[in-house]
Specification:
- This protein has helices spanning about 1-25, 30-50, 60-85.
- By secondary structure, it is mostly helical.
């Protein structure tokens, strides 16, 4: 059952990433591009959870992937706020 749910989460993450990518192509706003990349990374994270047998989900390398995705989101927000303040 978990493999099915991780597959659904992977697919939905990549669908969201495609939507952000579509709107980035229209606007060329880096905010949308970074969000698209973040959701691609989240999809990779869920795919890793489905294919890699983890004894404990709290292994450090699963958190590194999530850290990368959240760092992309934070970078997008900081960059957008800096643009707005100028």
């Amino acid at each position: 059952m978990n493999d099915f749910l991780w597959g659904v989460l992977t697919t939905l993450s990549w669908v969201v990433a495609l939507f952000f990518l579509k709107y980035w192509r229209l606007s060329r706003d880096r905010f949308l591009l970074l969000f698209s990349l973040a959701f691609w990374v989240f999809g990779v994270n869920w795919m890793m959870a489905a294919f890699v047998t983890l004894e404990h989900e709290a292994e450090h390398y699963t958190y590194v992937v999530r850290l990368l995705a959240f760092s992309l989101i934070i970078a997008a927000i900081v960059q957008k706020n800096r643009e707005a303040s100028h």
